[in-house]
Specification:
The chain folds into 3 domains: 7-119, Orthogonal Bundle (Butyryl-Coa Dehydrogenase, subunit A, domain 1), CATH 1.10.540.10; 122-229, Beta Barrel (Butyryl-CoA Dehydrogenase, subunit A, domain 2), CATH 2.40.110.10; 233-378, Up-down Bundle (Butyryl-CoA Dehydrogenase, subunit A, domain 3), CATH 1.20.140. Helices cover 53% and strands 16% of the residues. It has 10 helices and 10 strands. The protein has helices at residues 7-34, 39-47, 65-79, 81-101, 104-116, 231-267, 279-307, 313-338, 349-357, 366-378; strands at 121-124, 140-144, 147-158, 165-171, 181-187, 193-198, 209-220, 224-225, 269-270, 273-274. Strand 9 and strand 10 (273-274) form a beta hairpin. Helix 3 (65-79) packs antiparallel against helix 7 and helix 6 (231-267) runs antiparallel to helix 7 (279-307). The longest helix is centred in the middle third of the chain and has 37 residues, at 231-267. The two termini are 26 Å apart.
Length: 379
């Protein structure tokens, strides 16, 4: 499959690269150190149109498609993975949920504000007992006249304390298993939406991850996303696309690791010559670059299939599997190339190492990706 990008996508990629280098990378270390919300970075992304990548033009979005969005996310995450994950969740999980499953009224009400950044979107699926096994969630949705009442606790919610709109999945039929889950669009200003504990994380420290308490949260029936009891299908469909976003994030982090390693290997001297002159270092650089380019091709392939309306679930899992493994490999080797310096916070590879780890965990663990891929061959 040929991935010679057309001129418009090359220009988009270059614009995103320059933006990330000038606006995101210089702020990334401080956000990580202070564990401070990357709100200003997200605002700047909105000005660039990056919060409307999944939104059709008729609603004020840039409608870049999955391929264009993937290229942007690779660059944003190379500059700052905390910002990149926020932009990815907002686009691939919140905006796309409404684009694909929302009715006309919901699209008119929310998409223009999401596209401009007036509203920031979150995605609320995981719970204490339902991570990889999302179908076992227990958060309740009880009908009450023309409304629904949501009660329960959600965990691991990216920027759940900063979002204006949340896609929340709750059990609407206690006895129906995965066929008894409904998706709701919830304005976070609603009484009963209560962000709780902020997790103290290894990486992505500029993107807060919080517990979410739903306490007698009243949601109008007009805010049901899709059909009642179809929420699990919606969640799984969205996660396929979300995996392309995380693969893009992993590639961005890996790209940053490679760039830092090439720079350091060219500057640092040992035994009278630069590290880059040693075969062992060259082998590491070569392996890192090969991992990255293989993952990039898989990711662009999955994105192209999705944009073309073709099945892409297996390819999205392959892309996430390869990219996340590659990011962690590249981060490990980047620290190794930097030696003792890489173990300190004076160099960014220490942060890349921590940021990379999550890519094998969220939006479906590495183990889940292997299961998904294998089943397509063994069924």
């Amino acid at each position: 499959m040929d991935f010679d990008l057309p001129e418009d996508l090359q220009m988009l990629q270059q614009a995103a690269r320059e933006f990330a280098e000038n606006e995101l990378a210089p702020r990334a270390a401080e956000a990580d150190k202070e564990e401070s919300w990357v709100g200003e970075q997200v605002r700047l992304c909105a000005e660039m149109g990056f919060l409307g990548m999944a939104v059709p033009e008729q609603y004020g979005g840039s409608e870049l498609g999955t391929l264009g969005s993937s290229l942007v996310l690779m660059e944003l995450n190379k500059g700052c993975a905390s910002t990149g994950t926020t932009v990815s969740v907002h686009n691939s999980l919140t905006c796309e949920s409404i684009v694909r499953f929302g009715n006309d009224e919901q699209k008119q009400r929310y998409l223009p504000k999401l596209a401009t950044g007036e509203m920031l979107g979150a995605y609320c699926l995981s719970e204490a007992g339902s991570g990889s096994d999302a179908g076992s969630l227990v958060c309740r949705a009880t009908p009450d006249g023309d409304d629904w009442i949501l009660d329960g606790t959600k965990l691991w919610i990216s920027h759940g304390n900063q979002a204006d709109l949340a896609v929340i999945f709750a059990r609407s039929d206690a006895d129906a298993g995965t066929r008894g889950i409904t998706a709701f669009l919830v304005d976070t200003s609603s009484e009963g939406y209560k962000p709780g504990k902020k997790e103290r994380k290894m990486g992505l420290r500029g993107s807060p991850t919080v517990e979410l308490q739903l306490d007698n949260l009243r949601v109008p029936a007009a805010n049901v996303l899709g059909e009642v009891n179809d929420g699990f299908k919606i969640a799984m469909a969205l996660l396929d696309g979300g995996r392309i976003g995380i693969a893009s994030q992993a590639i961005g982090i890996a790209d940053a690791c490679l760039a830092a390693s090439v720079k350091y290997a060219g500057e640092r001297e040992q035994f009278g010559k630069p590290l880059a002159a040693f075969g062992a270092i060259q082998e590491k650089i070569a392996d890192m670059a090969t991992y990255i380019e293989g993952a990039r091709l898989l990711t662009l392939r999955a994105a192209t299939l999705k944009d073309g309306g073709k099945p892409y679930g297996r390819e999205a899992s392959m892309a996430k599997l390869q990219a996340s493994r590659g990011a962690n490999y590249c981060a490990k080797e980047a620290v190794q190339i930097h030696g003792g310096a890489g173990y300190t916070r004076d160099f960014p590879v220490e942060r890349y190492f921590r940021d990379a780890r999550i890519t094998e965990i969220y939006e479906g663990t590495t183990e889940i990706q292997t299961l998904v891929i294998a089943r397509t061959y063994l069924r």
